[in-house]
Fold each of these.
Amino acid sequence: MSPRTPAEKQHVDRSRFPADEWRLVEKRFSTEDLGVTETLFSVANGYLGLRGNVEEGRESHTHGTFVNGFHETWQIRHAEEAFGLAQVGQTIVNAPDAKVIRLYVDDEPLLLPVAELVDYERSLDMRDGVLRREIVWITPGGKRVRIRSQRMVSFAERHLAVMTFEVTMLDESAPVAISSQILNRQDGEDEYHVRAAAMGEGFDPRKANQFTDRVLHPQMQSADDDRLVLSYSVANSGMTLAVAAEHHMVTDNLVDLHTFVEGDVAKHVFRVDAQPGQPIHLTKTVAYHTSRGVPARELVDRCGRTLDRARRDGLEGTFRAQRTWLDEFWARSDVEIPGQPEIQQAVRWNLYQLAQATARAEGSGVPAKGLTGSGYGGHYFWDTEIYVLPFLTYTSPRYARNALRFRYQMLDAARKRASQVSQLGALFPWRTINGEEASAYYAAGTAQYHIDADVSYALVQYVLATGDREFLEREGVDILVETARMWADLGFWRVNGDDEFHIHGVTGPDEYTTVVNDNLFTNVMARFNLRAAVRALEIIGETDPASRADVDARLGITPAEVHEWSKAATKMSIPWAEHLGIHPQDFHFLEREVWDVAATPADRRPLLLHYHPLVIYRYQVLKQADVVLALFLQGNQFTAEEKLADFEYYDPLTTGDSTLSGVVQSIVAAEVGYQDLALEYFEKSVYVDLANLHANASDGVHVASAGGSWSALAFGFGGMRDHDGHVAFDPRLPASWDSLTFRVTVKGSRLRVHLTADAIELTCETGDGAHVSVRGEQVDVRPGEPTVVALADQGPRRSGRPSMRRLSGNRREDGTLIQATVPHS
């Protein structure tokens, strides 16, 4: 029997979704997984997102039209109040839906679940950013109708979406009606009860909060022969929105237009005497504009200007601009894996999702689900800085800068939040849309203070990779200073033989272990943050003393304060268990009983949906990589032996219940020699949505996992590291792959990295070149001169996966063995 392909391993039905390296193709319509396919075929640009709902607007799992940052606020009702708890929740609002184009032939509606379809194909082309569908429908009266449609959200025009809908009677004439609508569903099927979801509360805390009361209040409505306009204000947040649609029909058939508009619906109904072989072609251009306070009337005017430009450019010009934008995106971002068509398709789909989530997110963050679903309420998390920004920094640095500037714009709110929890400096919210903490469950939310260090890490990575000193001096240093202040104030000195700096009462990335002392990840990253603030001030002072004086005055920095940061970093407590030769995840972690993850039934996963939080918190069990993530991000702070020991200890304890985990485990598994395991983790990550491996793809794309997939390729198999601004490569190509090619941009120069089993070839595609190293050998990469470095081997290769044998040395203080168990159901 031949080995199964990665796609088959991940349960992708290739008879329905054939492998195509540049397109996601669906050959058969099904209602069984509507939510998943709506996510997979979404189109977005970072500002506006349209779920892959069918044009007819009836057969849907979840209708979805989202604008980044467009949200409602609501009062969080805690079971027991306490000082400093988050008070106001935020949830992304489902905007009025302009995707709806309904078709009637002989007054019979096209209903895909029951329609007789003799031909069906839907495809998302990642080269031109267009979702296409073509079907042939046999009506109840036996007439054959061909329907072709296109849908696009423009990367070039931030506020613009374009749809086309073409109907052709193939054999017989018939009366045809096409009803093109803008539909606000707030007053019906989408009204629900609003509540604050948290770990252990409700059915699934990963889903969005939902509403009972009306959210969107109508403002202006208008309609004429060309344009439909609706506008709204949001009940509590006060945000405003306007949406306008312009229609253009081309046909040789006779057409009669009927227009209707009221508060929650606007539509053009085209009644056509359709003759066989005479196409009816409708173009629908749509503009969305939102604001935190601008009157709806002004947003209507903005929509008009957007549609005027689209009319001027014409349909062909709009599609051409989309293709040009994507040609440039793929030139700097593409990853090529020859001979692996299923993986190649999955990789490009994941990279395309990153473009859809970030490209035009100017002035906003990157929601955990992008704009493909309402999962996690449209909130921004630390996922952006650790999993998404590396891809942006090394392929599209301008988008990384936009994301970091968004954090800078949140700095005043972060200062306020720090004050609320009795800290100096600034504390960024664990989850938010408007800058205020929205986590109703502080133990696994607000207590994740590490977000300050995560933001600082991404900022430093960006500055070192791009050389953007202007951003550092004008805005970035403010973030570094205020987060350093928070760490210096949060931690404390304990003298017990040697001075040590400790940080207590925090939660690391692993949400199955909360409110602990000296979480290793937090302490290691806080140390980085403190040192980064000190070094940034030193660099500014060395190169521009006047600018340093301005920074000191603006932020009230004193020499004693900076010295304290440096001392705290040097003396940071880093947990270490000598008897096991590993780093404990936190000070008391090894005192807990071990959870046997391998023996846990599949129907009891993820654990957070089947066990009370207090049960989970009593065990050594991880939702996601914690120490292992530190080994990657701060790899130059650990020895090779420590990395191997830590990985082998924590891997069997990690459930992977979070999609943030697999990519990190893949990267470190590759580095320490578990090559086959690295590929296994990578495949699970790159297929997490395409194969719905976590059974929640219907809530939207896992954007952080998509970003992590790129990191697994570049940092894992490509062996790229970027500590202290020096780019280095130590490749680990999977044995089953012929080659791997990816691009990284360093200080304005784009390098093409081509990896085979025995060599790495570096080519400067744009810019002046770069200085890098390959396994310790310094390499100058110059324009027009490909540099090839031979690789003697791919490093150590370990078979299988780590077992729980290393845990046998895990004993309590009284010497008794901590047994590996699974709690009672």
Amino acid sequence: MEYSPVVAAPTELREHLPEGGAREHLVVIGNGMAGCRAVEEVLARDPDRYRVTIFGAEPLVNYNRIMLSPVLAGEKTFDEIVINGADWYADNGITLISGDPVTAIDREARTVTSQGGVTVDYDRLLIATGSDPFIIPVPGRDLPGVISFRDMKDVDHMLAAAARGGSAVVIGGGLLGLEAAHGLSLRGMKVTVLHIMPTLMERQLDEAAGWLLKQALEARGQVVLTGADTAAILGDTHVTGVALKDGTEIPADLVVMAVGIRPCTALAREAGLDVGRGIRVDDHMVTSDPRVLAVGECVEHDGQVYGLVAPLWDMCRALADGLTDAHSGYRPSATSTKLKVAGLDVFSAGDFSGGDGAEDIVLRDAARGIYKRVVVRDDRIVGAVLYGDTADGNWYFDLLKRQEDVADIRDALIFGQAFASGGGQADPRAAVAALSDDAEICGCNGVTKGKVVACIAAGAHSVDAVRGTCKASASCGSCTNIVESLLALTLGEGAVEAGPKTMCKCTSFGHDDVRREIVAQGMRSIPEVMHKLHWSTPDGCSSCRPALNYYLLCALPGEYKDDQQSRFVNERMHANIQKDGTYSVVPRMWGGLTNPRELRAIADVVEKYDAPMVKVTGGQRLDIFGIKKEDLPAVWADLNAAGMVSGHAYGKSLRTVKTCVGSEWCRFGTQDSTGFGVKIERATWGSWMPHKFKIAVSGCPRNCAEATIKDFGVVCVDSGYECHVGGNGGIKVRATDLLCKVATEAEAMEMCAAFIQLYREEARYLERTAPWIERVGLAYVQSRLLPDAGARGELAARFFYSQSFSQDDPWAARVEGAEREIHAPMARFTPVPVLEEMA
């Protein structure tokens, strides 16, 4: 991906720079999370105090580096991880000079000069240059194909490498390394992780939790080698592999170094500032020059440097207090880490090394993949490690920070807050209510309980409103349930503004959230989804199980095994149940065409099984009514013998492709609509979708096939094919929207496949194309399908890949087992009682 600077090129910028005025000029070197957060904090305290200029090395607005991993994994786009868009700079009068890093600081003249030659005066200077990735000094480290994982440019390199396929080696088993490995693995690369220490993420996890994490990653297909010491990167003109000191050689088309970071201090050092491991600062983030401040990963405070978000946010608050004449300064406090590593939940806090005088309380649940360890010394928590279930992390951390005596709840401590405080029967919201005001709710954005409550009191009466004000739950979303609880506790149930509708009573998650988390966490089964997303019922219900089954089918083509018991009765029976308990059977007729053999087979079935009615459907098919349940396999067998397959008239899938006779017979026809309709149907049948899906191809604008009330309709014209979407001829008639016009059948086919896949991946279960398009907007659909042929091609390719696993006739599969069912009539057809209401 190529980026352009957000504002004018550096040589054109001088006329845009702030000049004059009574306000002091604050210049910020670094357009990252810490620099912009510091400016936000200053603006929140005194918006008129400073005029601000920000230099950024990247040609981008401020974005959330924590969320680079979801971008790599395909779970988010860059736009979705932007923290401050261009409007934020404009609204606050901030001059942004992007893509032009500062190369020199003149402290005597109080100026900074950029690589592009822009020189700016400052009254106060803030250095927020962050950190540099550490590249291990081994032979071959400079070869093309060896990269770090720190910014969007690195992500683009990895995406390009993944598109070519092959093998990747990730050096470093910390958070960044594992996230890089996870993303590359999801992108189809064969990934090996090398970690020099015996335990993955040893700074955050103890040996037991690290082992569980290693096992989980290996179960997903990654190779994880601990105790692996890299000797050299192999290759002549491009990386070809990695050699270890024990002689092992691992092939690689890409090597990602994620072994650690170092404070970026070169600029400060050259300016003569006091630098140790980082730029040395006092409690208000002031350096050895009182006019120069520093914040973030580049600083050293009391001999410590920090890489976690929470202390950086505290630094920003202390810096803003100092710049606006407040008195509170930065004092380091205990830190916690609550993360999703490749979709797996981990949490750690404090000192979990144990040792003399410490007592370990451990819970292991191997079947559920849960490990909890709380370290207690003198009846106070000093550390905690959680793996698999991190729900009580905030509570443990709050007890740790407050150094509360836990002697009275010692025996129940490991089972979590609800159990320890109320025998397991306490209202879950009581756990949130008991948290102190300074308990951290959102680790991604450093938001405390007190700040969330203050936002709610100030008028933020929904989750979205809270996200828009204090940013709690605006990044990874893992704290959304806590924010919801705080809304209910602060306002009362009735006063909370409704957010997105949840899937059902079993969960607090909406359809979009569930779909996102299935991909983000790499979930592989319905029980796993229910477990990881904290379903309130043990087995779900008739609303959520079919939806989960579809979302997993869509996310994991060829991998997920369809759960028949999570389907509606018609889909389980592969026929439509009627009011009298019999079934109707609709064989597929490609494009509405048939032949004598098929017609004879249908007639024979009607007579043989005494079907009371045969009906021509609106989709140009023949529907056979009144078939008894026990006769269904035999009916299918007879129709299969004539070459007919299921018409899926019962399914959330393609129903029909309706055609007119087109140019072959009609004097008004402009294209071969019948032939093209047959091609589309043969390409798209069998695909499971959020709802039923109908296609039509009309041979001219007279539209005899009614293409403009179908989910996807093609109207043939002299110059090509008009593609229409989002029609509905049901209770609420909706005419289609014109998506685009293309010149060839091949383009129309690709557009159809891409549209179907976009609908499959993004619509909610039981949402037809019409309400989906009304919800997201035609412009959005066009933005995904029209400007970028590559994106359209990727969607189409994903659709056809999924079709390679979907175009198996369910009638034929059932017929194969019919002999075994003669003496046990339709045992597999018997619905599960708890799901019977789905009929």
Amino acid sequence: MSVSFVQHRIQAEARARKLALERSGSTEVRIADIYKYFPFRLFGLSRDALGDLAQIEFEAELELCRANPEMLEQYLDMKRGGLRVGFISDTYWSTDQLARLLRSCSPGLTWDFLYASCDHGSGKSEALFETYLAEQGIDAASSFHVGDNHNADIKGARRHGIRPRYYPQASAPLASKFQRETSIFELQCPDQPSRLDCGARTLRRAVTARSAEHSPAFNVGVTVLGPVMAAFDAFIEARRAALAREGARVAIGFLGRDGLLPYRVWQANRGETGAYVEINRRVSLVGSADTLEPLSELLSPVVKIDAATFVDIVKVQPPAVMKFFAQYPDGIASGRELADALPDLMDPLEITDIAAGVRARLLAYLRAKIAEFDGCTDLILVDLGYSASVQKSLRRIFDREGIRIRLHGAYLLTLDDAFDDIADDDTAEGLISDRIVTPHVKRMLIRNVALLEQLCCSDEGSARDYHGGEVLREGDQRPAAQLALANEVQSGTLAYASRARALAPHYALQPDADPIVAARWAAAVLGRLLLLPDDDELALLGGIKHDVNLGTQALAPLLDAGFINDCIVARGLLTACTAPAPPMWLAGSFAALSPSHAYLYTLFGANRLPANVFGEAQCGTLQVGLFGPDSQASLEAVSVYHTGLGDLRLRIPLSRRMAVATIALPLAKLTRGGMLHGITVQYGESAAKAAENSNVKAIPEGRLIDASLERSGRQFRATTEDGMLLIPVDGFEDDVAIYTVALTALDHDRILAVEDRDGNRAPSATLTWRSANDAQATNGN
């Protein structure tokens, strides 16, 4: 009801101003004029409630408004300098109400003049400045006006010869981010109001306005990552305080490597009350193992692994394992193959001895890093997330060593269905949990979290072991420029956290007062960056490489727009939304195609992209020519589909035994002019396997041959009715190949999928156009 109330209140104001303009030539209205057009009955009210609603809105204004300290100080400086100073406002509040509002924000405030536009029937863009100059007897050239609306304040003042100063509430880029954040908020938290945030945006505007111009990376920290990490920091402190109230002796460990930024924010605010401990999933899982199962679980997802990497993980060279690698090309096997063979390659006692050594070295490291480790009763583990794997492994390590310290995970993002096996005395909680956003949304965020990990990460390699209470690290393959960029983003984040702490009391703002609201907005701010980045952010962050870790030297790209485009061509939009990594930043790869692609992907992740709208539907068939190496030809009918975006798809399945060398595609039969989005090929042992194959290969444009076609970039035009595109067929990688052609026809309306009287798709021997405009008059396909 609150959302409906707000929207009806906005619509009532629009109607009131439109009618005022028609009647008087000015859009100025009072608050009572607005509520005359409000639908009282809808909300169970009579028209007698008009005055009550106007008064309640004014009381809300009194509660929510804040004085800008910088503006107030400039105002007082002018007063102390003997200048006549006052206020001119475009507002539906009367002069008396405006006076009360000003004194509510700054008690004792005085002025020499006060103008409310609704009392004068004219705004600053019209004649209000003229009224002010005439009534006050002031020379325009000696008058100075400060305002935040470029049209009303700046242009309006200049039109009357008054010197203006523009003081924007938010820069254009920040305002754009706010708009996208609101959209993300309403998708992620659909049942929650997006208009109130406990002052978080007011504080962000204030911090940004007072931040000197810095590098683009620094600004990402100030405007985006800073607010998220500030909310996370408050969440961690709330967890610590709750345990302390119960009498616990609490220690806090921030897990490296991507726990570094939360640690730096905590350290800047609270000193050395927390420790940065470099423990990763690999080390903790090996240390907790008493069977081969944890090691197999660790290795299974690994795409490729060699003997050197395996030895680096387990610290031994079992002969049987070395022989296993020797039988593979270049000594490289898949993690799944190794995990399956491991029970036959290693004695379970070997992993027990390995784990005991890792445990002893790890515990020595913890005692060296965490002050009074053995004296604490509770240890908070801080990390970005997600399934508490390090926490679970540490629990097993502590239990094996008789350490009774309780463990409490404090995570930014959590996969909450992974917490059911947390020990009874331990806890795990996320700032952005499934009580804040839905599981669908959570998985979308985590699918794209690699960007956040790289920005929060330390600039050192991952932990591989410990010695003498010190960490031993892997080499770090990330480029120096990427590390410098991440450090600059972190500097901006720290700057935001510091300035926000200083400014919040001046504005009487408490953005973390309601933990649930703070968590929702943290999810929206983070979600906006990960899911709807703007072009500046794509240009800045798109070149980052993701450190795959696990003892490898691999760096995976964050962005690959070409891969996503090929996936859309071959498999459709919906299937592309589930593309496996890499690319690591899937949403960013969609955004690199276009902002609308990124928004469609976001809708998919929020479970708002219906398959029967954005999927494919057959709209006919087309005869294509298949030529063998001996120039013998045959005709085959292939299905033509239309997509939810109005494009056309043709899928041409071929088998190795057909011995096809060239596909002759009669494009002119489809359209005389259009856009060719791409041609791809997928391979598999069957047609079904080929269609599911995510390893999509694009056919380079230069290999295509035109016959009575003219092509310029993606655009094509058939010069005759026989215009064809000849597609070369390469050697088969498997038994079946599926060639997919994606295009947009530009010379007709979209084609409709047709059903027969029984509700089945009606087949046709050749494609016959049936547009949306002539659907009622056509009986064919």
